[in-house]
Amino acid sequence: MKPKSAINSNLHDMVYDAKRFVLNNRSIMEIAPLQLYSSALVFSPKTSAIRGQFWDQIPRWIKNIPAVQENWSPALQSLEGHSDGVKGVAFSPNGQLLASASWDNTVKLWDTSTGAFRCTLEGHSFPVYAVAFSPDGQLLASASEDSTVRLWDPSTGASRYTFALVNAVEFSPDGQLLALASDDHKVRLRDPLTGASCCTLEGHSSNVNAVAFSPDGGLLASASMDKTVRLWDPSTGASRCTLEGHSSYVSAVAFSPDGQFLASACSNKVRIWDASTGASRCTITGPSLFIYAVAFSPDSQLLAVASSSGVRLWDPSTGASHCTLDGHSSDVSAVAFSPDGQLLASASFDKTVRLWDLSTIASHSTLAGRCSQVFVVVFSPDGQLLASGSLDKTLKL
After folding, report:
1. Domain residue ranges in the chain
2. Kind and range of the H or E element at 7?
3. Structure confidence by residue, pLDDT tens digits, 230-283
4. What is the mean pLDDT of residues 103-111?
């Protein structure tokens, strides 16, 4: 008789394998359940317990068994439904919902535990490139190339408000304000629950491309085509200071989690500023031709820069290069740190996502299987899931 521990271990392995089998073949099960025997079993990994248990049930007419991988891949499932590429992805604060923004002009909502499709949010007339949940998860904002931001109720899929001439959107940490970056050179602050205007921030001389709140909500940064970054007091609308030094338009801004630093990026340069004084701390340059994204580690000790030459980690306090993560064979479009800071995920035009172990600065794993470029990668709030969106019209978990 097997020891109880061995029985429990075998049961755990069987349940885990069954979960992987169901998630991987959910779409087949929903449309044609009997195909489980003629396709799902056949294409399951060699070591799959479900494959082994039911192998004698596959149809006898299948003579040529396809070559399959040894074990389950890290990808739990592929979420299909968009008719064009997926540009933006966001988890709800509780991790139960996943929102995807697509070039098909829609936003879709998914159940992260099952991968089940929840609903489609329609209303934009051009591609949607970004989505963001409010801190309490009660609202979802979507930004589109039609120069509008829409607010939705994710529980019902109902449209709440539409704001025009907007390039970017950001919720304040307490969820009480919504910052809208506009083509008319202004930043508008609104009440996300009512849509009412709180104040308008004026000072830029060209389009505002991006906005970001400090972690405590005491500051708002705006990045503009006028090559400057401005810091504002969102409670009063007063301008705190103007950060100058970029040689081209500023495309992105991000505060460090501890609130001490502000990073701003233009096409080929990242500048680090003291968030409290606006003083320039350092400038980060390198051999890259184009910078796509920047991200601070959870402890604010590292800044990851995704560019056309790969991924590089920097010390934001000094501007010193920490290391270069080699492995991708094309431009890196996005980077994301896991909530515990142990892993870094990078998405690339080489059709892969790579996970890096930051304790050893080594490649942890490569998530392949894409048919086209990967544009976005995001960790779930608990760090247990990683979602990526691609030009191949799918999301992968």
Report:
1. 4-57, 79-396
2. helix 4-24
3. 999 999 999 999 999 999 999 999 999 999 999 999 988 999 999 999 999 999
4. 97
Residue 387 to residue 334: CA distance in whole angstroms: 12
Backbone angles phi, psi at 57, to 5 degrees: -95, -5
Q: Phi/psi at 89 (nearest 5 deg)?
A: -145, 140
What is the Rg, in whole angstroms, of the alpha carbon atoms belonging to the chain? 23
Q: How far apart are the first and last CA of the chain?
A: 39
Query: How many beta carbons lie within 10 A of that of residue 319, not counting itself?
Result: 16
What's the fold here for domain 79-396?
A: Methylamine Dehydrogenase; Chain H (2.130.10)
Q: Which residues contact 221 (CB under 8 A, 6 or more apart)?
A: 211, 212, 213, 214, 229, 230, 231, 232, 253, 255, 262, 264
Assigned token pair, 166: 């907007």
CA distance 215 to 238: 18
SS3 string, 204-271, reads CCCCEEEEEECCCCCCEEEEECCCCEEEEECCCCEEEEEECCCCCCCCEEEECCCCCEEEEECCCCEE
Is a pLDDT exceeding 60 seen at residue 6? no
Furthest CA-CA distance within the chain: 79
Nearest to 170 by CA among 199, 206, 195, 134: 134
Look at residues 368, 369, 370, 366 and name the one whose alpha carbon lies nearest to residue 356: 366
**Where does residue 237 fall: left (phi above 0), alpha (psi -120 to 50 degrees), or beta otherwise?**
left
Q: What are phi and psi of 221, to 5 degrees?
A: -105, 140
